[in-house]
Amino acid sequence: MTASTLSYLFTPPAPASIAIVGHETRFPVRRVFCIGRNYEEHAREMKATVSLDAPVFFTKPADALVTDGADVPYPSITTDLHHEVELVVALHAGGRDLDAAAARAAIYGYAVGLDLTRRDLQAQAKARGTPWDTAKGFDASAPIGAITPATQCGHPDHGELRLDINGETRQRADIATMVMKVTDILVSLSTYFELRAGDLLYTGTPAGVAALQRGDVFVATFPGLADLRGRIV
Ligand code: MN
């Protein structure tokens, strides 16, 4: 059977996709990678240590993404939903064992995102040595703003990443204080996975993570990138 004659039991869902600033076309998402413990002050507040040799990578399903302006339902099974504001990198190319130049060339653009976390389930998983999926990869766990192409915003290596909840600043830090820089993360990630066009990377959160409640309004910003706005319902 050739591809053109394949038939499916039910209609496959359309790929998750994200708006691109200044473009009609959307960015189709393949996979969502995340790195943990990438700002020292945040690692300290989590009582964790930072290791350049053994970065903490995890993933979220692509359909966990929530686009700008949409409501985010408070998830089940938790009483401690936390915000983590992060710079997100979007790839239009990939490969294995990338060098720094290839990693940089694979970057299409940048966005602001939230790595929402069931902190109580994550603490249980850490204590039990079990996987983080239910703590990190739940439905609607990855709000993300529109992607700004690097051709417009360049490749930012400094600037203030910030999250306001109900008008009060909860997290703010310069991305220059990342433990692993963006290209170094991609170089490392590409030794574990063959990266491909459509992959996203959440690059870790600075200090100040805290609980969200139903009704909270969030605004995440980074200079030169589209704001991310939404509400917990
Ligand atoms: Mn995170």
Describe the structure.
The protein is an alpha+beta fold and 233 residues long. It has a single domain (15-231), classed as Fumarylacetoacetase-like, C-terminal domain (Fumarylacetoacetate hydrolase, domain 2, Alpha-Beta Complex), CATH 3.90.850.10. It is 18% helix and 30% strand. It has a six-stranded mixed β-sheet. Bound molecules: manganese (II) ion. Residues 34, 36, 84, 86, 115, 202, 204-205 line the site of manganese (II) ion.
Mind sketching the topology for me?
Blueprint: E1 17-19, E2 26-28, E3 32-36, H1 40-45, E4 56-60, E5 65-67, E6 71-72, E7 81-82, E8 85-91, H2 100-105, E9 107-114, E10 117-118, H3 119-128, H4 133-136, E11 142-144, E12 148-149, H5 150-153, E13 160-165, E14 168-174, H6 182-192, E15 200-202, E16 217-221, E17 228-232
Parallel strand pairs: 3-15, 5-11, 6-17
Antiparallel strand pairs: 1-2, 3-4, 7-10, 8-9, 8-15, 9-12, 13-14, 13-16, 16-17
Residues 34, 36, 84, 86, 115, 202, 204-205 line the site of manganese (II) ion.
List all distinct small molecules, including ions and cofactors, that are bound in this structure. Answer: manganese (II) ion
The number of strands is 17
Low-pLDDT regions: none
Shape: globular
Q: What is the number of helices?
A: 6
- Highest CATH level, the class: Alpha Beta
Q: What is the CATH homology-level superfamily?
A: Fumarylacetoacetase-like, C-terminal domain
What assembly state would you assign to the polypeptide chains in this entry? single chain
N-to-C CA distance: 46 Å
In the CATH hierarchy, the third-tier topology is known as: Fumarylacetoacetate hydrolase, domain 2
The structure class reads: alpha+beta
Largest sheet: 6 strands, mixed
Side by side, the strands of the main sheet go 4-3-15-8-9-12
The helical percent reads 10-25%
Question: Could you say how many structural domains there are in total?
Answer: 1
CATH architecture annotation:
Alpha-Beta Complex
Beta-strand share of residues: 25-35%
Strand/helix succession: EEEHEEEEEHEEHHEEHEEHEEE
